[in-house]
Amino acid sequence: MTHAQQLAFIPFEDYLEGEREAEGVRYEYVDGQVYAMAGGSELHNTVASTFHGIIENALPDECRAWQSDMKVVGKNQSKHFAYYPDIMASCESNRGDDPYIRDNPSLIVEVLSPSTQRTDLKEKFDNYITIPTLMEYVVVSQDTPYVRVFRRRNNWQNESYYADDSFVLDSVGLEICVKHIYRRVKKEVGLEARR
Q: pTM score, two decimals?
């Protein structure tokens, strides 16, 4: 998602309460700053939806996956953050009593667009990897068949995968072919259509 508008400083608890009552517009939070989120493009949403479906269909019954409407919250150096990842999954019960947030995902996926690339690869990356339960952070290009996987067990080093590659997500026990994520947008991302 793209950052559309920065608003004034707000305490974290007030932000969470306001998000429960908000209609239409969602906001992300970083250390007192609240950002209104703009909608994603058709390409972005199709790639995210396809990837979410692959994950959702492979999850064991005790696990859950969410797409873009579930908040992840955490703290990095005593500074609160809250984001709406494009995809998030967990096989643990929610630790808190707020059904609108998660603080214990094992997998987070962001689909990059030109306007979100810097935020997803720097700010969100730096914050997400402080979540103790997170095993993998996956960044997916919306414009070309290209996936980056960052894993806790590899000290968050980048693993790059291209159209003809497959990769494994240990957090959800799934092997995925990169092309499969882009199967509904082959023309837009430069893959040949197969019939």
A: 0.90
